[in-house]
Protein 1
Amino acid sequence: MVWIPKFDESVLPKNDMVFQSLDHEIEFYKKYAKTVGFDCRLGSNKTVDGVLQYKYMICSKVGEADKKDADTLNGEEGASKAHSMVTDLKGGYAKQGAKKIDYKNFSRDLKCNIGDSDDYMLLNLLTLR
């Protein structure tokens, strides 16, 4: 499932945009990021002889996917984390349909029936459907 934010396209950055100052540019990108559903922060920069050559603005989550894979189907995420992720994707607890204990019970029953070593076999079968 992929989340696609809904927003006014007038906030999108465009090629060849010109800003009055670096502060105006930073403020624009912070507003853009907040509007479309993420946060940004200032990254690295380079100066030559005291003159700023470039400054990066990056998503505040950059690099975190490398630290911990967010795939709930990899067998490493727990039932609580899976429940939390699905709740976020569906837009809240009211739209979730299942409680955290339901995820834990399903995980327990699955492990009792197929064992830990066969979970990838089950995922492959479900993927082929």
Protein 2
Amino acid sequence: MLDIIKEDVVISGIGAHFAKASNMEELKQRLYENQSQLTARWPQAAGGVCNMIGEVDSNHFDNSYFGIHRQQCTFMDPMHRLCLERTFEALLDAGVNPTEVRGKRIGVYIGSSIGENDNLFLESVVSGFGITGHSRAMMPNRVSYWLNLKGTFSFLFLLHTPTGEEV
């Protein structure tokens, strides 16, 4: 039987960033107006390959706010930066000031799948930031470190099969 303590709380909020929409309201508006979220990668599809892509801007990041060294941030997978920013947004959406949860017993659970920036890993090995900058398992650790959280953390790796199933 699961012991539930009266003080246990779930912080539920959403932080989102989409192609051509930096938040949920912008996405909703674009969907209502039937606007495409996709951009052409090249003029025409070559050999039947789809040339449309949904690009997410990850060029702006306040590394000092999240306690990450500038050089480490240079070699870090953009997914890590986006994860921290969306966590910040989710806390605000839930009505929680991030400074109010610092040092508390709060768990962090994150799921992710394969990213397209894995090729940056080879470049980052030389810098010494390869493992911490590209391991998906580091994402909940980064959130815990940023907020000085004392609870558990876990990472779930989602594998997408050619048939579209998640494992």
